[in-house]
Amino acid sequence: MNALRAHIEQVAPTDATVLILGESGTGKEVVARMIHRLSHRAAKPFVPINCGAIPADLLESELFGHEKGAFTGAISARPGRFELAEGGTLFLDEIGDMPLPMQVKILRVLQERSFERVGGRQTLNADVRIIAATHRDLETRITEGSFRQDLYYRLHVFPLETLPLRAVRTDIPLIIEALGQRFMREGRPVAKLTEAAMAALAVLPWPGNVRELGNMIERLGILYPAQPVDIPQLPEKLRSQLPADWLPPAPATPMPAPCDIPAEPLLAPGLAPEPAPVHAQVLDEADVDPREMFAAGLLAPPAARDLAAAWHLPTDVLALEHCVCQLPESGFDLKALLEAIEQAWIEHALTQHQGVVAQAARQLGVRRTTLVEKLRKYQIQARADEADVTA
Q1: Per-residue DSSP letters for 295-319?
Q2: How many other β-carbons are positioned within 10 Å of the β-carbon of residue 60?
Q3: Is residue 62 classed as helix, strand or coil in its secondary structure?
């Protein structure tokens, strides 16, 4: 990736034609835009066109424009992409899918730096920089007769290759971090991948490359906003592509229990102990939401497979004083954890009191108005007659 960046910085200040090769989803248009931004044409337009997405009979008009009456439906003159990109950069994406007749006309523009509109006679100058891209093997298409060899050599002045994601596996954590930062700038939710989940993503084949990875990160952010995501939370389609003999890396240090206190639950005065929920007895890590574990009065270490090692959350200050807490060496997000615990207890209290806010507030020891504000904060649904909140 650093080598690609260095080549971009070298070719950007020139007007050389650039041909970007690489699989779909590897960021060919991103590279083209970087070249444009680093060139002396940066203040002028960057005009992209997908040569494979436009029907052959319309592509000429899209590229060169047309005069009024040039064909049926041409009720007025219209400039093409070459004119729109005047002084800037024209990005010919998927040029390997361009029809042969259009390849001849593009070759002439590259040679003469001039063109005519469809139906016009005036020759127009083309002061544009050409950047082309394709996921096709152009040399193979030349052999098959579907791509002109002379056009290939005109485009192949300065070739750049974007690598597939499977070839830069060590960069995947950095790419995920960059995607997460971009989503946060755009106000979109972002999930927090665990070390094991990150390791799993690094061994997947990624046929859709960075585009596929970005879509997956966006999906996880919607499903688990600001929440930890481990291997079981990854999409089933991705988990099924993990090698059969692959094992997640062992944690560098054992995951400490947040609290080591007696196994008997500590209850608030006057409350009788409740039987453990059924889902707590047959807990499956693949189906657990941490908030459900909090609400059930359980907090199991992420790596625990045996629920005999479960801990109960303390409900009074005295119990907390006797709680032996161990901080992980890498640290953790205290604010997020406290909010998750608070949200879980609120949801549990509302469930126990059939959504009546006043009764839930009384059991939690807070004012009703305070609880209403927290319901708004966490977007928790309650009975409308008791709390004027909506989820």
Answers
A1: HTT-B--TT---GGG-BPPP-SHHH
A2: 20
A3: helix
- The whole-number average pLDDT for the span 204-224 is 93
Between these two residues, 253 and 199, which has the higher pLDDT value?
Answer: 199
**90 φ, ψ to 5°?**
-110, 120
Give the single-character DSSP code of 276. Answer: P
Q: Return all residues near 307 (Cβ < 8 A) that are at least 6 apart.
A: 280, 281, 283, 298, 300
- What band does 323 get if pLDDT is binned at 50, 70 and 90? low
User: Can you list the positions of beta strands (E) in the chain?
Assistant: 18-21, 46-50, 89-93, 114-116, 123-125, 129-134, 158-161, 192-193, 228-229
As a whole number of angstroms, the distance between CA 120 and CA 71 comes to 11
Q: What is the dihedral of CA 364, 368, 371, 377, to 10 degrees?
A: 180
Instruction: Count the residues in the chain.
Output: 391
> What is the C-alpha to C-alpha distance for residues 125 and 113, in angstroms, rounded to an integer?
6
Other Cβ atoms within 10 Å of 44 Cβ, number:
17
Output the six-digit token pair for 58: 């319309």
Could you read off the pLDDT of 65-98 as tens digits, one per residue? 888 877 777 778 888 899 999 999 999 999 999 9
Angle between helices 172-185 and 209-223 (to 10 degrees): 50
Q: Which residue has the tokens 């927090």?
A: 192
Alpha-carbon distance of 367 to 31, in angstroms, equals 56
Comparing 154 with 258, the larger pLDDT belongs to 154
Q: Which of the four pLDDT bands, split at 50, 70 and 90, describes residue 208?
A: very high
Q: Above 90 in pLDDT, residue 320?
A: no
